[in-house]
Design brief:
Length: about 100
């Protein structure tokens, strides 16, 4: 089994499994009540400021378009070499597109 993940999930998976590959995470603007629609829509194409609670500082969050493109190429760099017999995804459109393109079930 091979895992592809980013962010905190990557760190957790890496502690338990060997074949874990880091990929660019795609994140939305969220608070305790859910996704902040207006900020998330703007962030589709434009970078926006974001306060990182873990680091206690203001950062610039890349656009979702940028994150999606980088995630695609992160996956692409490894999946073809692995040539899996089966690809299981949680709905990641990039992974599903690569599976379809390279005919992985």
């Amino acid at each position: 089994m091979f895992f592809f993940s980013g962010g905190k999930a990557y760190d957790m998976l890496q502690k338990e499994f060997k074949n874990v590959y880091k990929i660019t995470p795609i994140s939305w603007y969220e608070n305790a009540y859910g996704i902040i629609t207006s900020a998330s829509l703007i962030n589709l194409f434009f970078p926006l400021p974001l306060f990182n609670l873990e680091r206690n500082k203001l950062e610039i969050k890349n656009s979702n378009a940028w994150e999606t493109i980088h995630r695609y190429y992160d996956l692409r760099a490894n999946i073809r070499d692995i040539a899996p017999d089966l690809l299981i995804s949680d709905g990641d459109i990039n992974a599903l597109r690569l599976a379809q393109h390279w005919s992985f079930p």
